[in-house]
Design a protein that fits this description.
The complex is a heterodimer of chains A (230) and B (377). Chain A has 230 residues and is α/β, with parallel strands linked by helices. In chain A, 31% of the residues lie in helices and 27% in strands. In chain A, the strands form two sheets. A six-stranded mixed β-sheet of chain A has the order 7-8-9-3-10-11. In chain A, strands 2-1-4-5-6 form a five-stranded antiparallel β-sheet, covered by helices on one side. The longest helix of chain A has 18 residues. Helix content of chain B is 51%, strand content 19%. The chains are: A alpha/beta (230), B alpha+beta (377). Chains A and B meet through helix 1, helix 2 and helix 3 of A and helix 1 and helix 8 of B. The complex binds adenosine-5'-triphosphate and magnesium ion. Magnesium ion binds next to helix 1 of chain A. Chain B: This is ABC transporter permease.
Chain lengths: 230, 377
């Protein structure tokens, strides 16, 4: 990923259907959009409109039925197939995921949850732990570094999860309802953080949300309805 | 960072409980093997105790343990005269039930000639039989000690010595008396009809029956040659010590081996299924974590490692506990349980294989987990 001027995420005429015949569901019926570095974009729409499907495709865990996906200018999916065979590596290094529920590994402390993705990317244990602690401090949960997820409040856990998503300095960050489980104050803190990351790391951030608490926190909002942008 | 270890540490109570359950299963496997080894050891005890080279028994039999054998008492002198034979002794064997203070007791009574091969060796207490009449050396497992009295047939015997670890192939404690006493006992215990027959035939003379003659052979003479010498007498059959042990292994052990082998195999299959189910359940419990790991880009090897290492850790700890349990328990069994290092090592190897096989079910499940399920709430 070298092209610095190209949008970080580029969807062109992406279609996706699940199942075949009478069971066929057209989840996306030709969706195109770009997200550039530094942007925080909201993705909204009624239930079943295809939001998670979009996120899964950007995150390279779901293949489109048709269309093209480029990340940082590099074609990743085109002509009905993936153009890279190391999608896991791509996810590990270039994409950060934030979930509605924190999805931290319950048997690892805050520090180790974050350090794990750094070590998977090849960093030494010592370096990984140092960077993990910096990140936790940056997210204001440094004092909970040795706690297990079950000992954290919802907001703390979500911030540790964000620290994990940021660990390898990905340029693309995908969040599925990151604030749904938080009160309005915590939700604002999370949005502040994502904004800061977009600026500090020149990242493209896509946030799926139903949440009115944060409706006004985006540069742009994409509205999906029945598999089409409106 | 070792995820398997971290997960185990986080759920240490549940993990150890599972290991203990597994270890009980492995304890049963080990005790089956130990019982089998014990059967072999016990069945060979009687054949090995006299430390002889040849067993002379009734022709066409493979006695005196596997089949009944009856020989005239004067055979011993004939055998002793064969070139190469240094020592020979007459022996009788019979099972007797008697009553002691502790209740009914089944005994295996060996009659031997004091000073000749076949008597009690290595006493742990008391002295050998010196008087020819009504003295007995008993095995410790009878619960009797020096000075106690023991009723055999119609006579009271005085316990003068104690041996250890002497049991019949049926597990009954062995007691030693003199050949003469044992022949009396045989006569006392014979059915009335047979006894009348014997009495009419002239009493003492025809009751001079023994079950086997044992002989030691000069070290410089080939045992097979001496055995051929004895075989000239048509009414005698000869087994070398090695043949005697083989006969016992075949008759006593072969069936036990199949029985216990089958049972052990079943237990191992049950263990495999149980380990597989445990690993499978553990994997199902971790579906969300596995999906998350895949989503954030962890390679399959990390996920497979997590499952396999836990399976192996469970096997290793369960096995260690199992070995500890059987070592602690083995002397509490009513019959001898022999835990042999090679058996333990072999079971250890089997457990490793079983764990690997069992974890494939969990691994397959884990590899099929869709990373997208991490995103679904
Ligand atoms: N694995 C699947 N198999 C079949 N149909 C699916 C699958 N995943 C999603 N769908 C269907 O595709 C459509 C879009 O689903 P998607 O999950 O993208 O919606 P969403 O906008 O995220 O909804 P929500 O707000 O409820 O999370 C829905 O009609 C859904 O039923
Ligand atoms: Mg959704």
């Amino acid at each position: 990923m070298t092209d610095t001027t190209a949008p970080l995420i580029s969807f062109s005429d992406v279609k996706k259907h699940y199942g075949e015949g009478s069971a066929r569901v057209d989840a996306l019926r030709g969706v195109s959009f770009d997200v550039t570095a530094g942007e925080v974009v909201g993705l909204r729409g009624p239930s079943g409109s295809g939001k998670t499907t979009v996120l899964n495709i950007v995150g390279c865990i779901l293949a489109p039925s048709q269309g093209e996906l480029r990340l940082a200018g590099e074609p990743v999916f085109a002509g009905g197939r993936w153009l890279r065979d190391d999608l896991r590596r791509l996810r590990l290094e270039a994409i950060g995921f934030i979930f509605q529920f924190h999805n931290l590994l319950p048997f690892l402390t805050s520090t180790d949850n974050v350090a794990l993705v750094l070590q998977l990317a090849g960093q030494s244990r010592g370096a990984a732990r140092r960077r993990a602690q910096e990140l936790l401090d940056y997210l204001d949960v440094g004092h909970r570094r040795d706690a297990f997820p079950s000992q954290l409040s919802g907001g703390e856990a979500q911030r540790v999860a964000i620290a994990r998503a940021l660990a390898n300095r990905p340029r693309i960050i995908l969040a599925d309802e990151p604030t749904a489980a938080l009160d309005s104050q915590r939700a604002q803190v999370v949005m502040d953080l994502l904004r800061r990351v977009a600026i500090d790391q020149h990242a493209a951030i896509v946030v799926v949300t139903h949440d009115d608490k944060i409706a006004d926190r985006f540069d742009r909002v994409l509205e999906l309805r029945d598999g089409l942008l409106v | 960072m070792n995820l398997a270890l971290r997960d185990i540490r986080h759920n240490i109570g549940r993990f150890l409980l599972t290991c203990v359950g597994l270890s009980l299963l492995l304890t049963i496997v080990l005790s089956m093997l130990g019982i089998y080894r014990g059967l072999i050891a016990e069945s060979l005890t009687m054949a090995r105790a006299p430390g002889v080279d040849l067993w002379i028994v009734e022709t066409n039999t493979r006695g005196p343990f596997a089949e009944a054998s009856r020989l005239p008492g004067d055979t011993r002198e004939a055998v002793a005269r064969v070139a190469g034979v240094t020592e020979a002794g007459s022996l009788t064997f019979q099972s007797v039930e008697t009553e002691t203070a502790a209740g009914k007791l089944r005994l295996y009574v060996v009659g031997s000639e004091p000073g000749r091969p076949g008597g009690p060796t290595r006493l742990v207490d008391g002295r050998p039989i010196s008087q020819s009449r009504y003295e007995v050396v008993v095995d410790r497992s009878t619960g009797l000690g020096v000075g106690d009295r023991l009723r055999l047939g119609r006579r009271e015997f005085q316990v003068v010595g104690v041996t250890a670890g002497q049991v019949s192939s049926g597990g009954d404690p062995v007691v030693f008396i003199t050949l003469r006493d044992s022949q009396k006992l045989q006569f006392d215990l014979a059915p009335p009809a047979a006894r009348r027959e014997l009495a009419r035939g002239g009493g003492e003379a025809t009751s001079d029956i023994v079950n086997a003659i044992v002989a030691r052979v000069n070290r410089d003479v080939p045992v097979a040659g001496v055995a051929d010498g004895v075989r000239r007498w048509k009414h005698l059959a000869v087994l070398t010590q090695e043949e005697q042990e083989t006969v016992l292994s075949r008759s006593v052990i072969e069936r036990a081996r199949r029985q216990i082998g089958l049972f052990t195999t079943l237990l191992l299959i049950v263990s495999t299924v149980i380990i597989a189910l445990i690993i499978y359940t553990l994997t199902i419990d971790k579906t969300k974590e596995i999906a998350t790991l895949k989503l954030i880009g962890a390679p399959d090897r990390t996920i497979v490692g997590l499952i396999m290492q836990q399976a192996l850790a469970m096997g290793a700890i369960g096995f260690t506990f199992g070995v500890a349990f059987i070592l602690a328990m083995k002397d509490g069994f009513p019959r001898r349980v022999v835990v042999e290092a090679p058996d333990v090592a072999a079971l250890g190897a089997v457990v490793v294989v079983v764990c690997l096989v069992a974890s494939t079910l969990g691994v397959r499940l884990a590899l099929k987990v869709d990373p997208a399920t991490a995103l679904a709430g």
